Amino acid sequence: MAERVSAREAIALVSSGFTEQELADLPDAGDGPLGWEGYGAQRDRASRRTGSAESVVYGTALIGGTECVLISFEFGFLGGSLSERAGDRLEAAYALARERRLPLVSLIATGGSRMQEGMIALGQLQRVARASVLLREAGVAHIAVLRDPTTGGGWATLGAGADVILALPGAQVGFAGSRVRPADADPAAYTAEGQLAAGQIDAVVPPGSLRDTLAFWVRALAPAILAAEREPVDPPRALGAGGEPSRTGWDAVRQARGADRPRAEAYLDDYFTRREPLRGDRCGGEDPGMLCGVGLRDGRPVAYVAQGGTATTPAGYRTAARVVRLADRLGLPVLTLIDTPGAANDAEAERSGAGAAIAELFTAVAAARTPLTSLLVGEGGSGGALALAAPGNTWATPASYFSVIAPELAAAILKRSPDQVPHLADQLRLRPQDLVELGVVRGIVGPG
Fold first, then answer.
1. Where are the alpha helices (DSSP H) in 74-233?
2. pLDDT at 225 over 60
3. Which of 181, 244, 290, 396 has the fewest C-beta atoms under 10 angstroms from its C-beta?
């Protein structure tokens, strides 16, 4: 279990210069909309104990020098539960972020909707959902930090609905709270680490690193920064030995498959001064071979989607589509690195919706208004690779190939003997220089 801190302690952990906002005085709610006996007295005791008028505190603050709107839950106030008045504060915080075009950061610690207000409390989830839609339409980012616990409607709206989802180590995270789960449920599934493995959150961040990580995200996603980011980025330079494309098609294939060829990690580290991950498809899956996130290039934030040389799974394509859509909505330029023998084609991939996931990424790329740049760094295996390619702005390294089908599979389909594979590789015209001549890529990048 993560250490539990108060709402204001959580704010002090990540920010400076917090200016709390308060709503106009409201009439005494007494025992609430249900007339729950003793509810008013419960709220009074919670307020005296915590120093908060409700379970939600909000205002403006600086995180790493970037102004943002902060929401922080006070778990000591009736378990950080959502009430009608908490909903008022949440709606006001979203509106403030939208009107001032400031990133919204939510520091969440809640057990769910407040039982003493019944369906009135539960209905606050619809208010939060509407406020979230308006924030998205305004092109303002929402970053959530999941404290302990983040359960129920707070997880299903503010948490899971955020653009970037961070969590503290050991935090309880799940729709079902600890007292309403099946007795035989795996407790690991309800932790930050379990949700990370299931593709539901982007990173688990230790408390000592949280301020710095949040400072990166609020600066990278601040609308004022992104307003001028509408030009495509340059492709990365070629890494590794050898600057000349292969002489034959089969040479190109073997070079692209070489074990010592630089992979996505090397290209990303060379291209960006810093980067932070965006992980998971939000549908229960994660592909470790698909690296996604946001990096800084000469101080400029750039979203990236990079294949790591493995067969890409449906979760990988869904994650990539999520990142492209997020970048498009916020105005971030996108860099994609193409390197895969093809889409995963096993039975599990089919059951997980391989076709639909690839179609989702093709659609996200086709619909994107933000500029995309793609670099073929290794294998370009059929549609599973093409799904990442920026139309009209794809480049190639010398150690790469792009093909409608692998030469070996072409031989199998055409019922050719294995010794015909090199000849088929030539016929497929898959070398970088062939791709330039055919108009598939714009050019071949060099090492400088």
1. 84-100, 118-122, 124-137, 152-154, 192-197, 207-220, 223-226
2. no
3. 244
